[in-house]
Design brief:
By secondary structure, the protein is of the alpha+beta class. It is built from 1 helix and 4 strands; from the N terminus they run ββββα. The chain has one domain (7-67). Strands 1-2-3-4 form a 4-stranded antiparallel sheet, with helices on one face. The radius of gyration is 12 Å and the shape is elongated.
Length: 70
């Protein structure tokens, strides 16, 4: 299994959160932390591997940390 890696983006720490669902596929969420508080975003796409889900979560988290949530 792929080990999630946190990524520093400016003042934020972006951490992918991956979960395997009953179908055997993976879902992605991301935690964006600043200080002692964090926000967690869940995403709808499902992925064939945990590595793909992790990459998606990191990419989305980086975008949110830099540009804000839509």
């Amino acid at each position: 299994m792929h080990t999630p890696v946190a990524l520093a983006v400016g003042r934020y720490l972006v951490t992918p959160l991956i979960r395997r669902i009953e179908s055997g596929r993976y879902t992605a969420s991301v935690s964006i932390r600043r200080g002692m508080h964090d926000r967690v975003f869940r995403f709808l796409p499902q992925f064939d591997s945990d590595a793909l889900a992790s990459r998606y979560a990191l990419d989305q988290g980086r975008h949110i940390a830099l540009h804000g949530a839509a």
